[in-house]
Design goal:
By secondary structure, this protein is α/β, with parallel strands linked by helices. The chain contains five helices and four strands; from the N terminus they run E-H-E-H-E-H-E-H-H. Helix 2 packs across helix 3. Strands 1-2-3-4 form a four-stranded parallel beta sheet, sandwiched between helices.
Length: 140
């Protein structure tokens, strides 16, 4: 499983880094991977060129990607607009693999656990997400 965390609006340079990132993770795992994307509340909207580049990257990396699950943090109109943009990118990408977005982490975790059991239990996914977001391993 791979994680992508958008803390600000994606740039064209960031969109172009997506394909090599997915290839690297898939090669390291030896199989197509699930990608968990978190989009921070209040980020700027990506420009049309960026949205097109991201959709193209998703199409080209489709054989390397088992599924994509996203969490679009936030409430209200702005979050709704960003969810609409992501939904349109999903349609443009014409992916055969499942792709779904949610407003809350737990909804995404539940969906991911059902659609890709190879990533582990819900608790495993939550721990991996916490590490990805904080950069800190849990103390047990």
């Amino acid at each position: 499983m791979a994680f992508a965390y958008w803390r600000q609006a994606p740039t064209l340079a960031a969109a172009h880094r997506m394909m090599p990132f997915v290839k690297e993770v898939s090669t390291a795992c030896g199989r197509p991977v699930s990608i968990f994307v978190v989009i921070e509340e209040g980020i700027g909207l990506p420009e049309e060129a960026v949205r097109s580049a991201m959709a193209e990257s998703m199409t080209k990396t489709a054989p390397l990607t088992k599924l994509i699950v996203g969490v679009l943090l936030g409430e209200g109109f702005r979050a709704s607009v960003i969810r609409s943009i992501v939904a349109s990118m999903q349609l443009l990408a014409r992916r055969a693999a499942p792709m779904k977005t949610f407003g809350k982490y737990e909804e995404a975790i539940d969906w991911l656990a059902v659609h890709d059991p190879s990533v582990g239990t819900k608790a495993d996914i939550r721990r991996a997400l916490d590490v990805a977001l904080t950069g800190k391993l849990p103390v047990e």
